[in-house]
Design brief:
There is one protein chain. α15 crosses α16 and α16 packs across α20. With 946 residues, the chain is α+β, with helices and mostly antiparallel strands. The two termini are 36 Å apart. The strands form 13 sheets. Strands 13-14-15-17-16 form a 5-stranded mixed beta barrel. A 5-stranded mixed beta sheet has the order 19-26-25-22-21, with helices on one face. Strands 34-33-32-38-39 form a 5-stranded antiparallel beta sheet. 30% of the residues lie in helices and 22% in strands. It comes from Thrips palmi. This is DIS3-like exonuclease 2. One of its GO terms (molecular function) is 3'-5'-RNA exonuclease activity. Keywords: Exonuclease, Hydrolase, Nuclease, RNA-binding.
């Protein structure tokens, strides 16, 4: 089923030390004479009088309109960090002593940079009364003057921008300056002087290091101003700087300016960026109007945003928009990173730089969406041959050059490529999964084991220890969150109970343990093991193991035999599960009610209950669940199934076989009552806590993608009705019996327009229609039933405890709930990706050990030189390239995308007819491991007849 439901690094000590050293260095700066300084400013005015005056006036108008206050006693001087050219890093406090040292430099380079900075603003205009900043593509040197860069922070009053990675390793996160009263526009000449003062000492040498003789000059340097060789060098250097600037990012605008632009300008939008995994030069954000995504074309316009970051994008003029599938697609560029979601770290390999640089090495991330990094060689293993076939983790510390970032290694080697444990660590690191055991100092925040509830713990709880309550879970599960019960009432109705582990009783809010659990947010399930959200001891303490007294939250419904809910209530309880059934056990009870159970077929049953008692409960719940499920889909629910692969491992942990995991009635039985519990809790919480309710929504599919899909599959005789979730579900199910492989492909295609479900704070949504859950087709939904493995459920339990009067209302703010929701959303997705990558890892290892292997695949997308397909036996997505086939290949997109392949000869030597590959074509491929990456599966098309 699709995923609809069911932090920044601190500065290193070295960085801090460098800043401190350079503050001291400023005290040694030489001061040019006033006469020289005046001559330099006069020459600058003569060169570009109109440009500077006009631009300064425009800046003054811009500042007056925005009314931003960027002036303070601290930002009268720049904050400089060490740059790529080796200039001294400075971080001055703006006091009297330091400001007196910041005087104009006599060096030509500083003067040239000032002029470039002034000429870099192409346009400052007011659109609909709102300021907009358009930076020239030719020069991104604004970071060296009027706007800030990741290396400098030069601020002018009323106008600020930042070129740092917002909240990234070099930043303390977005600032929140308070607006000051409106001030008079500054005099243009004062702006020039101010800029001159701020930039003048950029490249000054300390007095004791200034050149005093010809021997100290660089080779070819001019001795005096009349030497024309100096002018030629200056001209060459200026051209060289222009080339370098093409590879520099534009500065990010500051949040205050962006906030105004978002309110007033329709050409500025906010959203989460998605980077094409197969083409890192393409990125997208969703268009707020629901139409085609906004394209961010190129790494430079992506402007240091990473996958998943919340960004602000400026939509570029229509002349830059791209033709895509017969329509114009809007193009934009990132002007601000609102919330940095990605951790700016990656796993990859180390290589020697080809430019002969002996002080740095190249780090190549496995994820192409992350830039390559230059790493100081002093951080690498001493012997380069120790780098070969080894994985390392690196963190980005700077990213000014579009082509390369600057980074540092994190820890030691991750391990050898191709090793299962090393590859597992790599995918955990890439997905920000903390798999390290909890520190023992945190164990003091929960009772020691073994734990038996005391009488004081049972006050206010309903005693259900004598009821027939049991769990139904996967065979090897240990984190047993939920148990079920069912009793027939005298009036013929049923009293159905769902009993959820009371984790919030043990996990006290605000403790150090609670904060760490909130960061992990979810349990991560891999092929060979699970990494639990809670400490192992606490997991077992909360798990509803059979034969033990356990604290729980229980919800009871009175339900008629026709599955109509009459009433419900919640209570804290104490239970004693009588059995730990697996889905397989419950399925036998459903399929074979008269099955003769032999000793050892079932796990131990406690409390004097029998197999017949358990079977009666299972069959009663199954009869109700079947009706509830049918009514749910008749009422408009949607389900898009995705296959799940399970592996059988040998003693060394390597895969020896695999199969797809089939969901049967026993799974659906539990699913229906968990859904009912979650919906019931959501409604009660929203009624009681309309602002702080912790809920989960699922928005409608992206309309343009859904429309495109419907139009495309119609050409293959498949009719989909996308007017609602229910109509789409019925359309998909109409093809469930035609062809299993085609049905698999159709489900995969229908999952593409879907958006991810997400947690949210009720206060953030003012229109109830946006609280809805599209796939479930219900107005309110949340997660309550899995607190051992989801922190979101713990939040819900705390609210429910308050609702029932067990504790006071949580002292939460909306911002706090938003933060927890954002973390839960991120980590849920990261855990999902880690699980999928783990399956891909073990499938690749299986292919490596058994390949090459032939598999049947079904095509789901056709491109000019390749096609994407699903492996029928696993549902694995692969790409098959056709540009290196021993055949003639033509791509035709006139009616439907198709590849026309003319094979030379068949296996027996006879000529073959044309092979045409379109969507839903079933072909055979050969799977093998890549020669360069042992865990990358490559597929090659097998000619028909072979």
């Amino acid at each position: 089923m699709m995923d609809v439901d069911t932090n920044d690094e601190p500065k290193s000590g070295n960085d801090a030390g460098a800043i401190g050293e350079n503050v001291e260095l400023e005290n040694l700066q030489a001061q040019p004479t006033a006469k020289k300084r005046n001559r330099r400013k006069e020459r600058s005015r003569k060169k570009k009088p109109d440009l500077e005056t006009d631009q300064s006036a425009a800046i003054a108008t811009q500042m007056e309109a925005v009314r931003l206050d960027s002036a303070s006693p601290q930002n009268g001087v720049p904050e400089l960090r060490k740059g790529s050219e080796g200039s001294a890093a400075r971080n001055l406090d703006g006091g009297e002593n330091s400001s007196s040292k910041l005087v104009s430099s006599a060096k030509k380079k500083a003067k040239r940079r000032k002029n470039v900075a002034l000429s870099s603003i192409e346009k400052l205009s007011i659109i609909n009364g709102t300021p907009s900043v358009s930076v020239s593509n030719g020069n991104s040197n604004l970071g060296r003057g009027l706007l800030t860069s990741s290396m400098t922070n030069v601020e002018l009053p009323e106008l600020k921008a930042s070129n740092s990675m917002q909240g990234g390793p070099l930043s303390n996160g977005p600032t929140n300056h308070k607006s000051a009263k409106h001030r008079n526009s500054p005099d243009p000449g004062q702006l020039r002087d101010q800029l001159d003062t701020r930039r003048g000492s950029k490249n000054q040498l300390p007095r004791n290091r200034q050149r005093t003789s010809d021997q100290q000059r660089p080779h070819g340097a001019a001795k005096n101003k009349q030497d024309h060789g100096g002018s030629r060098n200056k001209t060459f250097q200026r051209k060289h700087d222009h080339i370098l600037d093409e590879n520099k990012f534009e500065p990010h605008l500051q949040r205050e300016l962006v906030q105004v632009m978002l309110k007033e300008q329709q050409t500025v939008v906010k959203g989460f960026i998605r980077i094409n995994q197969r083409n890192y030069r393409e990125a997208y954000i969703s268009n707020p109007d629901g139409t085609k995504d906004i394209l961010i074309d190129g790494v430079k316009d992506r402007n240091r945003a990473f996958e998943g970051d919340e960004v602000v994008v400026l939509i570029l003029p229509q002349s830059t928009w791209k033709q895509h599938e017969g329509a114009l697609q809007k193009v934009g560029k990132v002007i601000h990173i609102w919330t940095p979601v990605h951790h700016r770290q990656a796993v990859g390999n180390l290589k020697r730089l080809q430019d002969g640089n002996s002080r740095q090495v190249l780090f190549s991330p496995r994820d192409s969406r992350i830039p390559r990094m230059r790493i100081p060689i002093k951080e690498c293993p001493y012997k380069p041959n120790e780098w070969e076939n080894c994985l390392f983790q690196a963190r980005i510390t700077e990213w000014e050059d579009v082509r390369f970032a600057v980074g540092r290694l994190v820890g030691d080697s991750v391990g050898a490529e191709g090793d299962i444990e090393a590859e597992t660590r790599a995918l955990l690191l890439d997905n920000e999964i903390n798999w390290m055991p909890y520190e023992e100092k945190l164990f003091k925040y929960f009772p020691s084991t073994p734990f038996t509830p005391a009488e004081s713990d049972l006050v206010g709880r309903e005693d259900l220890r004598k009821r027939c309550i049991f769990t139904i879970d996967p065979l090897t599960a240990r984190d047993l969150d939920d148990a079920v019960s069912c009793e027939k009432l005298k009036n013929g109705n049923f009293k159905v109970g769902v009993h959820i582990s009371d984790v919030s009783f043990f996990l006290k809010e605000g403790t150090a343990l609670d904060k760490e659990v909130a960061k992990r947010a979810t349990t991560t399930y891999l092929v060979q093991r699970a990494y639990h959200m809670l400490p192992r001891q606490l997991t077992m303490m909360c798990s509803l193991l059979p034969g033990e007294d356990k604290l729980a939250f229980s919800v009871f419904w009175e339900i008629t035999p026709k599955a109509e809910v009459v009433s419900h209530y919640f209570t804290r309880s104490v239970i004693n599960s009588c059995a730990q059934l697996a889905y397989e056990h419950a399925q036998i009870m459903i399929d074979e009610p008269d099955h003769n159970w032999t000793e050892g077929e079932l796990p131990q049953i406690f409390g004097g209950w029998t197999v017949e008692d358990l079977k009666e409960v299972v069959l009663s719940l199954q009869s109700l669940a079947a009706i509830m499920r049918q009514e749910r889909f008749d009422s408009g629910a949607l389900r898009v199934d995705q296959p799940k692969v399970v592996f059988r491992l040998n003693e060394s942990g390597e895969p020896i076989s695999y199969a797809t995991y089939a969901n049967k009635e026993s799974h659906r039985l539990i699913e229906e009552f968990m859904l009912l519990a979650n919906m019931t809790v959501a409604t009660d919480l929203q009624n009681k806590f309309p602002r702080l309710a912790f809920l989960r929504c699922h928005e409608e599919p992206q309309p343009d993608l859904l429309k495109k899909l419907i139009e495309l599959v119609e050409k293959f005789g498949i009719v989909l009705d996308g007017s609602s979730a229910g109509s789409l579900h019925k359309s998909i199910q109409g093809y469930s019996t035609d062809n299993r492989t085609r049905f698999l492909a159709l489900n995969s295609l229908c999952s593409r327009p879907m958006v991810r479900a997400r947690y949210f704070c009720a206060a953030n949504i003012h229109d109830v229609k946006y609280m809805r859950h599209y796939a479930l087709n219900v107005p309110l939904y949340t997660h309550f039933t899995s607190p051992i493995r989801r922190y979101a459920d713990v939040m819900v339990h705390r609210l429910l405890s308050s609702l029932l009067g067990y504790c006071n209302e949580p002292n939460w703010t909306v911002d706090y709930v938003n933060t927890i929701a954002a973390t839960c959303n991120k980590m849920k997705f990261c855990a999902k990706k880690a699980g999928e990558q783990s399956s891909e890892l073990f499938f690749a290892i299986w292919v490596r050990n058994h390949g090459p292997v032939e598999e049947e695949v079904i095509v789901i997308d056709v491109k000019d030189h390749s096609f994407d397909a699903l492996v029928s036996s696993t549902g694995t997505n692969i790409r098959v390239y056709t540009n290196k086939l021993a055949a003639s290949v033509e791509f035709d997109n006139s009616v439907i995308p198709q590849l026309c392949i003319k094979w030379a000869v068949s296996e027996n030597g006879s000529k073959l007819t044309h092979q045409v590959i379109t969507m839903f074509s079933v072909v055979r491929v050969s799977l093998r491991c890549s020669n360069t990456n042992l865990l990358k599966v490559e597929a090659s098309l097998i000619p028909p007849g072979f």
